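task queued by scheduler; priority normal; single chain, no ligands, no partner chains; default sampling; output format set to structure tokens
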Amino acid sequence: MRKALIVIMAAMTMCLGCAGNSNRAVVAMDCPMPSERSSEYLLGPGDTLNIVVWENTALSVVVPVRPDGKISTPLIDDMQASGKTPSQLSQDMEAVLAEYLRTPEVSVIVTGQGAANQIQIVGEVVNPQALSYRDGLNLLDLVVSVGGMTEFAAGNRANLIRQTEIGQIECQVRIKDLMSGDMSQNIEIYPGDVLVVPETRF
């Protein structure tokens, strides 16, 4: 398992190096918002949606957001879903269904999240994994969710990798200090973030 994690971290390091001058490192408190991010959940490829058309079970279905960012449901073909909020998609679907139904009411419920809306935690943590995003998620939530750090972790050298308007950013987070009560390190987490916890240098 440790060898696999080392390979993953090495691959990430190579990718960061390929980014060239667009790569920047900042401290936790200066970590910028991700690109094209609103305060609401944005749908992405791989998400699973429960589409409920009020009082019309024949049109109510569970569908995935395809890799091209679109969905298809009865009476609606190839509608763009990726990048929209669930409420925006509901309104767009209601506009199309209005051609067939009288005052349609559509609800869009996210029942599964794709990779675009997940957070990856790798390196020296107890249970490296991908976590589903939820509103208000912060760094401490991530650390708790993966069972904390291993005895080999260099918590104060951890990095949060984020895509922003100015390119890929490395936010330097001090998890050991956070666990000791430094809440300035407890930054907000967004979909697509990657937390990398390196091994202690012996």
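post-processing summary
- Residues 48-112 form a domain with the wza like fold fold (CATH 3.30.1950.10).
- The longest helix spans residues 2-18.
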